[in-house]
Amino acid sequence: MSKNEDKMEKIVSLAKRRGFIYQGSEIYGGLAGIYDFGPRGVELLNNIKQAWWNANVYDKENYFGIDSGMFKHPKVWEASGHIGGFSDPLAECKECNARIRVDKELAKVGVTADEKMSEEEINKLFDENRNNISCPKCGKKNFTEAKAFNLLVKSNLGDFTSDGEEPVYLPGEACQGIYLNFKNIVDTMQPKIPFGIAQIGKAFRNEISPRSFLFRTRELEQADTQYFVRPDENKEAYEKIKQDRWDWYKSIGIKEENLRWKQHENLVFYAKDAWDIEYNFPSLGFDELEGIHDRTDYDLTQHMEFSGQDLRYFDQEKNEKYIPWILETSVGLGRLFLAVISDAYHEDEMDGETRVVLKLDPKLAPIKVAVFPLLKNKPELVAKAQEVYKMIKKEIPQTSFDDNGNIGKRYRRQDEIGTPKCVTIDFDTLEDNTVTVRHRDTGEQERVVIDELISILK
Question: According to the model, what pLDDT value does residue 308 have?
Fold first, then answer.
């Protein structure tokens, strides 16, 4: 097993052991590509979301947040191209009936199968490389032809006859809600162009082969921004957005050496430019984390055509109407969660033994402060520790109380959770009103007067 594969296994184990991530429907044997966020996982995820929202709504001028409904009119997915072109190339092993994604298997042998290729083009590459591709289940090389498999998940919402003539779909991507509400935002908020709309929303994909823990799942959450600019005034804004997104990853503690840019080689017909920020995932290597796309006026043009509504923007400065161009950023929060926890995962030596520690940026840590009584069988220490805990929790809600096990085990447990600081109440506390504050990354400890504790922790 490689070092990177070993690290991924350790992260998956820690995530379960410490209440970050559970397998979906685990008591029934699990459901492929579905995961549940546990008590610490949901706190970390919420902190990631808040950091993203702060950066993309609160810290920017002329950006508006929305939360659109999950279900959308069926024509939305026709207009967006998802019904006709949202598919993966699927082949089936004739020996054991296992299914493979042909483009991913080709990539493993160094052959690029672009998502915009036709079935005929994919099959030509597949036929040329069949001898190099083995079934991951039985090892044979006897496959059917590749066929396009649509990833949209159908629903029977509003279909009381079950005839399926007008299927409603779960969202294939979250961003369509932004385009659908463009006119509403313009009418109610009167923004001056350029302006942005931000959203965090769910998406569902009937993935053929969900894999690599949170990297490729069938239910996901996406954080998207769409920035609306005047036609042909996209280049400078696009470069600024790219730099802004790169800098944000560094601001949440992602190491720059684990990030890189990758430009799309074959653009879809409507795009001017497209770049991915890739992260060096354990067991995967560098792969897409966030996409940043110059989409021209395609999306609003499509929805204007299919809906019959005028989605042009009236520019008072220029006294003209036009369809704005769109600059998009889109990151899957599961992948972002995995990148954050992977980057924070460290093994080092402390007090003569190996420890596991999540060196999370403090603003992302699911627990900010843990409070301990030195001994749990001494009522006077427990009472004082509870008093200090309640005082801190009023100011820092993500504070926990822990009296389970000896003090060393508690420190190690909080290190694995990523808690930046631990506060210990001992017998000296009862005499001089000071506590020990222990710092996660270094293990250093300092005595602090309780009256100054809140300001120091903050």
Answer: 96
Q: Phi and psi of 448, rounded to 5°?
A: -130, 135
The answer to whether the beta carbons of residues 194 and 237 sit under 8 Å apart is yes
Calpha distance 268→273 (Å, rounded)? 9
Going across the sheet that includes 147-150, the strands are: 99-101, 87-92, 147-150
44 sits in which H/E element: helix 39-53
pLDDT at 160: 72
Strand ranges (E), 295-444:
313-315, 320-322, 325-332, 345-350, 353-358, 369-373, 399-401, 421-425, 434-439
**Residue 258 structural domain:** 3-83+151-341
Is 103 within 8 Å of 88 (Cβ atoms)? yes
Q: Is the per-residue pLDDT at 411 higher than 70?
A: yes
CATH number of the domain enclosing 146 = 3.30.40.230
Looking from the CA of 233 toward its CB, the CA atoms found within 13 Å total: 11
Structure tokens at 33: 């590509």
Strand (E) positions, 156-194?
A: 168-169
- The string of pLDDT tens digits covering residues 176-192 is 999 999 999 999 999 99
Higher pLDDT, 119 or 332: 332
The predicted pLDDT at position 385 comes to 96
At 259, the pLDDT band (50, 70, 90 cuts) reads: very high
How many domains would you assign to the chain? 3
Residue at token pair 């919402």: 157
Would you tell me how many other CB atoms lie within 10 Å of the CB of residue 370? 24
Residues 30 and 177 in one domain: yes
Whether 288 and 329 have beta carbons less than 8 Å apart is answered as no
